[in-house]
Structures are given as C-alpha cells and as structure tokens.
Amino acid sequence: MDTPTAPPKTAETAPEAAEEQRVRELEFDVFARACPSRPVLEHLTGRWGVLVLAGLHHGPARFNALRRRVDGVSEKMLAQTLQALERDGFVHREVRAVMPPRVEYSLTELGRTTAAKLIDLIEHLEAHMPAVLAAQQRHDRERDGD
C-alpha cells in the first residue's frame, strides 16, 4: 500500500516552512531576557493591554466605543495598544468599505482565550479588593509608625 506523500515545497514556501519549523522547536522562557514572549507579555499586561482585551471580550467594538469603555485611555495610547495587540495576533481590525469607512475591532481566537484568563484575574482581583485595601492600610500604618 502506497503512503501519501506531502507535495514538494516550492521555492516560495520553503523559507516560510523552515521558519515555522524553527519557531515550533524553540523553547520560550519569559524569564530569559531575549525571549520574544517578553514584549508580548508587556503588550498584554501593560497599563492598557488587559483593559483593551477585557473591553473586547463581550464583542466587537469601534474605536470610540472602546475608548469610552476603557476610561482614561488617550486616543494615542489606545491606537498604539490596538496596533501591538493586532500585530501579536490577539486583535483583528476590520475596515468596512462604507461611507465613511467603519473600523471595528474584535478578538481573534487567541485573543478570546487570553481575554478569558485575564477576565478571571480581573474578577479575582475585584472580589478580593477589601483584603487588598486592608493590607494597604496596615502597611501604611506600620510604615508611618516607624
């Protein structure tokens, strides 16, 4: 019985396939200085990344609606955050060809699964804020008492 063989790689796809194979073989370690996961982690956990992903968790949004949802973010920072998250594969930007053009942002599958984990963290934090505030007050009293 003949076993099927993969079609031969063309000259155009061979370098891409080799790069994909190299990436699959890498061991990523966020604690290593040069690991490419570090800047991605910064994009996600920076001041606005978590809030943008959480803001898109409930569904697609246009830029200004997302800006209203993420209270306090400037237009410039929201644009930069969306660009970084889009480049990293968490956010999809869709331009609709209507007049005027309409741009909508949504989460990719990777963005949805990541946002779900971040939502868990947010809910955990919000549920434990009384304990956090009490710890902060205790710490401040002890520090001021020294």
Automatic annotation (TrEMBL):
Domain HTH hxlR-type: 35-133
Name of the protein in question: Helix-turn-helix domain-containing protein
Domain of life: Bacteria
Classification via Pfam families: HxlR
Annotated Gene3D superfamilies: Winged helix-like DNA-binding domain superfamily/Winged helix DNA-binding domain
Keywords: DNA-binding, Transcription, Transcription regulation
SUPFAM superfamilies referenced in this protein's UniProt entry, alphabetically: Winged helix' DNA-binding domain
Source species of the chain: Streptomyces macrosporus
PANTHER family the record matches: HTH-TYPE TRANSCRIPTIONAL REGULATOR YODB, TRANSCRIPTIONAL REGULATOR, MARR FAMILY
